């Protein structure tokens, strides 16, 4: 099992980024997927999740209305579109499938700063 996250970078407040996570090593289309983030000195937190077929999504209150999670099962990829970014969105972002899949990717750094 492997997750490779990409798309992070430095962006000004109010800007946008689109993160991608390519999965391999398991039947991606059968699994619920979640984006997490971890800011320096803070616990890792759930950002957004999506059902296996993409028809159901869930968001942390802090990102509702600004972030959109989606997936392409043919490409084994889950996306996170992030708009109206704020400095408090600065973190390393990870994607993951639920237990018993325990693997984490390397994450992608998102920095929101002027």
Summary, kept brief:
The protein is an all-beta fold. It has no helices and ten strands.
Give an overview of the whole structure.
A hairpin with a 4-residue loop joins strand 7 (67-72) and strand 8 (77-82). The strands form 2 sheets. Strands 2-10-9-4-5-6 form a 6-stranded mixed beta sheet, with no helix packed on it. It has no helices and 10 strands. The chain has 114 residues and is mainly β. The model has no long low-confidence stretch (mean pLDDT 96).
Detail the topology: elements first, then pairings.
Elements: E1 2-6, E2 9-11, E3 17-24, E4 33-38, E5 45-50, E6 57-59, E7 67-72, E8 77-82, E9 91-96, E10 108-112
Parallel strand pairs: 2-10
Antiparallel strand pairs: 1-3, 3-8, 4-5, 4-9, 5-6, 7-8, 9-10
The low-confidence parts are: none
Total strands: 10
Q: What's the pLDDT, averaged over the residues?
A: 96
Helix content: under 10%
Share of β-strand residues:
over 45%
Main sheet? 6 strands, mixed
SS element count, helices: 0
Beginning-to-end CA distance, first to last residue: 37 Å
Q: What order do the helices and strands follow?
A: EEEEEEEEEE
The global form is globular
Which structural category fits the helices and strands? mainly beta
Query: What is the oligomer described by this structure?
Result: single chain
Radius of gyration in whole Å, from Cα?
13 Å
Record the strand order, biggest sheet.
2-10-9-4-5-6
